[in-house]
Prior knowledge:
Layout: H1 2-15, H2 19-33, H3 41-51, H4 57-80, H5 86-92, E1 93-95, H6 99-107, E2 111-115, H7 121-131, E3 135-140, H8 146-156, E4 162-165, H9 170-173, E5 179-184, E6 196-200, E7 203-207, H10 210-218, E8 221-231, E9 234-243, H11 253-268, H12 288-303
Parallel strand pairs: 1-9, 2-5, 2-8, 3-4, 3-5
Antiparallel strand pairs: 6-7, 8-9
Helix pairs in contact: 2-4, 3-4
Amino acid sequence: MMSAILYYCVVYPLSLLPLWILYRISDLLFLLFISIIPYRKKVVQSNIEKSFPDVSPRDQSVLVRGFYRHFSDLLVESIKNLSISKEELLRRMKVVNPEVLQELEKKGKSVLFVSGHFNNWEWFITSQALLVPFESYGIGMPLSNGFWDKKLSERRQRFGLKVVNAKNYKEMFQQEKAVSVLVLSDQAPADARKSYWMEFLHQPSPVLFGVEQMANEFDLTVVYFTMKKVKRGQYSVEFQVLTEAPKSLPYGVLTEKHVHLLEESIIEQPCNWLWSHKRWKREIPADLDALKAVQKSKFDEKYR
Length: 304
């Protein structure tokens, strides 16, 4: 009940305001975050310090402030996402190389998009079906709050995207027509022992292995996309084909590729990643080398 009241009486009416007004709210949020309400400040500072060890403490502080500046904009843009029109969304989201996907469409093969929580991923999710020439799906885990899960899924799907529970991902690929599926793969995995461990932003990091597994299981073309913030409320999207033949790649290569590309994106616009996420909360397994050997053996046995 309270969730519905909050949505219909506060959040959705706010989303109807023009962005220039919402950005004034963002300015206020930014001041609150860096002074009165230090949202997850210790997490943000720790993540940035460990990810940029060669940067001076003063410059690290600049990155922290830059993150809160971007994060404040991201919050109001996410609210705007609930009601933004198709026309306005397309004005604010520009694909710089649409020919990449046009060529893939001609081949009639399903595409797996991969990226991270970088710049405004919510706007990409909502506009995916408008930007790509495939039937569009997004994989996600349901929110614990049923009302918000239903509303957010409803809003994300209004331009043609279909949201599918991660537990039911196979149904998307059991169709005759080519589809595009979106995966954001930079969250902390639930199980450190079922993760792919690699170096990411100067730290040993567990990585979700779902992209490589799905690509091999269903022989998918894998495309990395990066968003760049051109200016406030304006983003560019660029696509890069990682492989059209995942089964030709050795174990781990595909995962290393898309994670390193995300790393490059973050280094280019370091304030615009979700630094408030507890990305490095999993402990490194004591038997990591043995674990990696077992994982590779199982993968090769199944897919090679």
